[in-house]
Amino acid sequence: MRLVIVTGMSGAGKSTAMKMLEDAQYFCVDNLPIQLVGKFVSLVSANKGEDVQNAAIGLDVRSGRYLEGLEEVLDQLKAEGYKFEILFLDADDRTLVKRYKETRRTHPLAMTGRVDEGIQKERECLSFLKEHADYIIDTTHLLTRELKKELDKIFVENGKFDNMMISVLSFGFKYGIPEDADLVFDVRFLPNPYYVDELRPQTGMDDGVYNYVMQNQVAQDFADKLEDMMKFLIPNYAKEGKTNLVIAVGCTGGKHRSVTLARVLYDRLHAERGYGIRLEHRDIGKDALRKK
């Protein structure tokens, strides 16, 4: 039997993750009192797969002061020979605040104070769980379907996961550099398909633009060097505990060259993935929208 403890920051997607695991035939119990965790584990383990193949326990700051005793409970389970994995869902503070404002919910630790103060208190309370987590998924940039894809890879397909979520993002400089970008690459040195009449209305998602950009030797050399740099940087970022990396590739309008190179980088990194990776084209349709 596989036992997963699902925890993380409020607003990072823990409830959604629990529903997804339930859909994957995990027996799920959310907000289980800390005092009952040990008893629950012993009961489902004694079942020996007759009714429960896999199980997931949702634990978070709703446990209040009893959360302080969770570390001791987990240590005791390990001492008794029980095996379990910890999944920690996280997101950056700005995203968590935004999600709370959108849902108009009150943060469990904010009381009458501000949401960001509650988030900081929560990070302190959950720091020991994140430190011991087997999987950390940063949902800052993830869509629901992308989160499901990562959970399926780990808990259904038993794939390798290295606690790193990478976003490859194309953008247009005229719309501003993405505020959350960790690495920014400017590809405006490449020939611009915008000045080719038949290619102007197309994007880097079309074969015409893609081939026009990538048939250039400079573009091929740049793609090779970028790939080599990323394969060096990503493991070192992961080693230092970074769980979310945004690689931004920009051109003038975010429609042709940046989209093409972002696609190339995504495909090359995706081929050897041991981490989560997603592709986004922030400004690909903005020119078209303006013309309407």
TrEMBL record:
NCBIfam families: PRK05416.1. Residues 1-158 form the RapZ-like N-terminal domain. InterPro entries: P-loop_NTPase, RapZ-like, RapZ-like_N, RapZ_C. GTP binds at D60, V61, R62, S63. This is RNase adapter RapZ. ATP binds at G8, M9, S10, G11, A12, G13, K14, S15. The keyword Cell wall biogenesis/degradation does not apply. The lineage of its organism: Bacteria, Bacillati, Bacillota, Clostridia, Lachnospirales. HAMAP family: RapZ_like (MF_00636). It comes from Blautia intestinihominis. PANTHER family: RNASE ADAPTER PROTEIN RAPZ. Residues 164-284 form the RapZ C-terminal domain. Signal peptide: none annotated. The keyword Iron does not apply. Keywords: ATP-binding, GTP-binding, Nucleotide-binding.
